[in-house]
């Protein structure tokens, strides 16, 4: 009776711990990612008594074109398809820059920076993924679009990425949005924009035309920056530039139209973005007009390749807003932290106009400074010579310098002083840097409450574990070492960036320990020793498969050195993996008629491999050689679309899952009727094999052979199971799930999220389906080990049942495993929260620790609660 109460009590503790984890995550997130306070209303021109009306703007219309993921070298380097654009640069009709896009480098926060001149919240990373979100709207904020609308000199039109329509509801008079997440579409998503351009260029009723092209970004996600589709897409975009420039040059009503085109962000070597690598933060930015020949930049193009992606002058993306304000004649948006790009000052020959433009920029930024620190920062009492000689803070130094600049402004006009111009721009840059680097307005009490709730979950989980696993405390020492060392590691940015090494070395050490444990068993064998060595060799290959992390992501690895450089080897390994899974599916469906399982498995596997060959042929046709090319040529479905091919695989897998679940339920009923009969685990094995085929479909082709290596380790653990305890199996599961995630190329950077397989079988954007496919694509290996763990635990449960071990009943084994995982997840969530709280003013809070928190959420909610507990629990129940 006491044991029953303890069992029920530990179950309640475990349930409570797993309920507290998402609660803690939510509370902490609302304090860590709040919306920043903004100055309300629309800016008006301030009266500067000594300088009169604002200078006359050289332009009155703007065509603003965003080419998503337009990395600087795509336009400026020798290996570029923008040949006409390069001619414009050399002729002086285009002024080129490399714009610095601060992290997070995803579309929504970048568009906010471009249009408001402010620094967006990191929360916009999450909002960027939600197609239906409207809370991120800029409708009530001051932007250069709102200022152009307020001028009432023409309509606003927009074509392209519908993120603009979410950000600016009701702003555009004519519009046609396209969804930004359907990355399989390289063509229609851009044609839908281009078809409007010719008609709009003939019209005279608009003053602002926004175009946002997505195809180049989609190509990057699917095939990377060196995809064979990349240069043709660049040439297509270059023709659009030519079409617009020709209209500006030839049509009288466009004589004062400014053409700006830029990237919202760049991309890394994998074609992704979201983090802070040089490629991701370096988009191109060009201002184009025949009138710009008055600005003598002496730029020429193309330029040699540059690994830093820095070409010409570098500016901040937020500088676009005040520069457009000057060039188009409207007040600088209120929340702007940008600086007027100094190259354009020569558009106003009079020195007083140049001085006035910089002073207006400075006054606007001073409004933000005083809103943040109070008007007393500019009080004369704080700006005495004594105080300014030894300023106590950066902001006091800034205020003292401002006073000197203001006093010298009139002299600069009279003396035609360029030194004052340089000094003022330097002051503006300093103010921009200080204000941009300010910590977010965290709701600190929520941070502490969230971390406190997570610690409560840790305590509950530890208590439940102690009640659920009747093993000596010494057996928990390795697990405790993993939990403690991982928690400590979360406080160091370098360790967070290179987290994969922790899991690689911890897993290697653990399997070495398991090998020693096997040798110390009562009946060690040479086969057992060979199995241990083979598993360690397989693990070493897994570790070296993909180089990941932040510092060495582009370094040589097995895929780069041996696989993609040798396509014949790639397809040999892929073929072996599909032959292996073909054999496994046939074996696990042994209860079906021979003809049915052979024909079903063969058809399903053929559909899978031909899809991957066709998919690779679209992404990287140079890799489809030899047997892969012959298979594609012999394919009976030749000519079928990738969507149709993927759906064929998914439908086949769906039917197979239904059969396997039926087998598992039938076996479960037989076990209930005949408890002494030997357990039948074929249904669970079939589900594992079918998932493996799904995971192969959702993985990059070069990663498919990893499943062969996973199988070697899985077989080793199964063969060693008689020497392993429940805590041993749970530790193995935990370590292998994380190792597999990083081995597939994952990291703690947003840019490592792989979207290349997120749209398999999808003809139109469907957020829930795309989300699930994206998760499977990125956690394919981790989910594999959840399935494998279920089979280990079922085997352990049955062996204990056969030995009449009351502590080894099915639910007791499962509850003990869940308790171990919950301790780690709750501890890791608490550690990440405490690290983010303690380091919230750290230089890398938004580039390292905030992305880590988002990944922590994914591991805690999706992998732990969704996969390990929900899916794993269902599988275990079916197999009991």
UniProtKB/TrEMBL annotation:
One GO MF term, please? Answer: CP2 mannose-ethanolamine phosphotransferase activity
Spell out where the chain crosses the membrane: 12-35, 447-464, 476-496, 502-519, 562-581, 649-667, 724-744, 776-797, 818-840, 852-878
Q: Which organism is it from?
A: Rhypophila decipiens
Q: How does it sit in the membrane?
A: Multi-pass membrane protein
Q: Where in the cell is it found?
A: Endoplasmic reticulum membrane
- Report which superkingdom the organism of origin falls in: Eukaryota
Question: Tell me, what does this protein do in biology?
Answer: Ethanolamine phosphate transferase involved in glycosylphosphatidylinositol-anchor biosynthesis. Transfers ethanolamine phosphate to the GPI second mannose.
Among SUPFAM superfamilies, the record links this protein to: Alkaline phosphatase-like
UniProt GO BP = GPI anchor biosynthetic process
Pfam families per record: Phosphodiest, PIGO_PIGG
By its UniProt entry, which Gene3D superfamilies does this protein fall under? Alkaline Phosphatase, subunit A
Q: In which pathway does it act?
A: Glycolipid biosynthesis; glycosylphosphatidylinositol-anchor biosynthesis
Whether Membrane counts among this entry's keywords is: yes
Q: What is its main location?
A: endoplasmic reticulum
Q: What is stated as this protein's family in its record?
A: Belongs to the PIGG/PIGN/PIGO family. PIGG subfamily.
Q: Which InterPro entries match?
A: Alkaline_phosphatase_core_sf, Phosphodiest/P_Trfase, PIG-G_N, PIGG/GPI7, PIGG/GPI7_C
Q: Which GO terms describe its cellular component?
A: endoplasmic reticulum membrane
GPI ethanolamine phosphate transferase 2 C-terminal domain residues are: 439-879
UniProtKB keywords: Endoplasmic reticulum, Glycoprotein, GPI-anchor biosynthesis, Membrane, Transferase, Transmembrane, Transmembrane helix
Protein name listed in UniProt: GPI ethanolamine phosphate transferase 2
């Amino acid at each position: 009776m006491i044991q029953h109460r303890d069992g029920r009590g530990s179950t309640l503790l475990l349930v409570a711990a797993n309920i507290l984890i998402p609660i803690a995550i939510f509370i902490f997130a609302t304090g860590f990612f709040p919306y920043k306070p903004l100055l309300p209303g629309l800016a008006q021109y301030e009266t500067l008594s000594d300088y009169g009306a604002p200078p006359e703007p050289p332009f009155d219309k703007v065509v603003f074109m965003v080419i998503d993921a337009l990395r600087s070298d795509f336009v400026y380097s020798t290996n570029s398809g923008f040949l006409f654009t390069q001619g414009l640069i050399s002729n002086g009709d285009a002024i080129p820059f490399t714009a610095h896009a601060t992290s997070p480098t995803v579309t929504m926060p970048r568009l906010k920076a471009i249009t408001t001149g402010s620094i967006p919240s990191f929360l916009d990373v999450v909002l960027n993924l939600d197609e239906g979100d409207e809370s991120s709207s800029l409708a009530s904020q001051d932007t250069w679009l709102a200022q152009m609308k307020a001028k009432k000199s023409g309509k606003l039109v927009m074509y392209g990425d519908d993120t603009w329509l979410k950000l600016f509801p009701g702003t555009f008079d004519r519009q046609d949005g396209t969804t930004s997440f359907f990355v399989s579409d390289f063509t229609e998503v851009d044609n839908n924009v281009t078809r409007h351009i010719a008609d709009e260029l003939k019209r005279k009723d608009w003053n602002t035309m926004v175009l946002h092209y997505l195809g180049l970004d989609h190509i990057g996600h699917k095939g990377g920056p060196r995809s064979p589709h990349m240069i043709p897409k660049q040439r297509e975009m270059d023709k659009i530039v030519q079409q617009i420039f020709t209209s500006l040059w030839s049509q009288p009503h466009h004589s004062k139209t400014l053409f700006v085109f830029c990237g919202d962000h760049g991309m890394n070597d994998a074609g992704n973005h979201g983090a802070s690598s040089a490629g991701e933060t370096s988009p191109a930015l060009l201002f184009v007009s025949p009138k710009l020949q008055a600005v003598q930049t002496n730029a020429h193009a193309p330029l040699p390749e540059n690994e830093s992606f820095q070409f010409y002058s570098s500016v901040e993306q937020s500088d676009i807003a005040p520069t457009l304000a000057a060039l188009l004649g409207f007040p600088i948006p209120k929340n702007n932290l940008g600086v007027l790009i100094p190259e354009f000052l020569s558009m106003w020959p009079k020195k007083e106009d140049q001085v006035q433009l910089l002073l207006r920029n400075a006054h606007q930024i001073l409004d933000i400074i005083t809103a943040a620190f109070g008007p007393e920062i500019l009080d004369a009492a704080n700006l005495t010579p004594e105080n300014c000689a030894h300023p106590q803070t950066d902001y006091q130094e800034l205020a003292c310098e401002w006073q000197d600049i203001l006093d010298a402004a009139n002299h600069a006009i009279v003396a035609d002083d360029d030194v004052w111009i340089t000094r003022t721009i330097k002051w503006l840059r300093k103010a921009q840097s200080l204000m941009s680097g300010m910590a977010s307005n965290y709701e600190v009490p929520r941070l502490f409450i969230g971390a406190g709730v997570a610690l409560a979950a840790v305590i509950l989980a530890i208590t439940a574990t102690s009640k659920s696993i009747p093993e000596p405390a010494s057996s928990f020492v390795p697990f405790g070492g993993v939990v403690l060392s991982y928690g400590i590691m979360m406080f160091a940015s370098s360790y967070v960036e290179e987290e994969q090494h922790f899991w690689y070395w911890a897993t290697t050490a653990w399997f070495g320990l398991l090998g020693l444990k096997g040798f110390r068993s009562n009946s060690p064998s040479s086969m057992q020793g060979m199995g241990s060595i083979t598993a360690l060799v397989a693990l070493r290959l897994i570790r070296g498969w993909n180089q990941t992390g932040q510092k060495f992501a582009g370094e040589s690895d097995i895929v780069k050195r041996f696989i993609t450089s040798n396509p014949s080897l790639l397809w040999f390994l892929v073929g072996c993996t599909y032959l292996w899974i073909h054999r496994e599916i046939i074996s696990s469906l042994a209860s079906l008629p021979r003809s049915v399982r052979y024909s079903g498995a063969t058809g399903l596997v053929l559909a899978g491999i031909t899809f991957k060959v066709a998919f690779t042929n679209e992404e990287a046709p140079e890799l489809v050689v030899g047997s892969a090319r012959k298979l594609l040529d012999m394919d009976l479905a030749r000519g079928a679309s990738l969507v149709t091919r993927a759906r064929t695989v998914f439908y086949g897998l769906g039917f197979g899952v239904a059969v396997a679940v039926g087998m598992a339920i039938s076996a479960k009923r037989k076990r209930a009727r005949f408890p002494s009969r030997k357990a039948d685990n074929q249904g669970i094995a079939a589900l594992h094999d079918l998932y493996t085929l799904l995971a192969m479909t959702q993985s990059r082709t070069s990663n498919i052979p990893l499943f062969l290596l996973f199988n070697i380790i899985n077989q080793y653990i199964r063969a060693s199971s008689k020497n392993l305890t429940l805590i041993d199996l749970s530790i193995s599961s935990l370590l292998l799930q994380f190792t597999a995630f990083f081995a597939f190329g994952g990291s703690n950077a947003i840019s490592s999220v792989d979207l290349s397989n997120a749209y398999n079988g999808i003809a139109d954007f469907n957020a829930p389906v795309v989300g699930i496919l994206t998760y499977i694509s990125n956690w394919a290996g981790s989910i594999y080990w959840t399935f494998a763990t279920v089979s280990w635990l079922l085997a352990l449960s049955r062996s204990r049942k056969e030995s009449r071990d009351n502590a080894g009943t099915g639910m007791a084994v499962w509850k003990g495993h869940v308790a171990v995982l919950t301790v780690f997840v709750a501890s890791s969530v608490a550690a990440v929260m405490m690290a983010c709280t303690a380091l919230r003013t750290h230089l890398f809070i938004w580039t390292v620790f905030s992305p880590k928190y988002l990944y922590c959420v994914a591991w805690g909610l999706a992998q732990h609660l969704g996969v390990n507990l929900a899916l794993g629990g269902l599988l275990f129940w079916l197999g009991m």
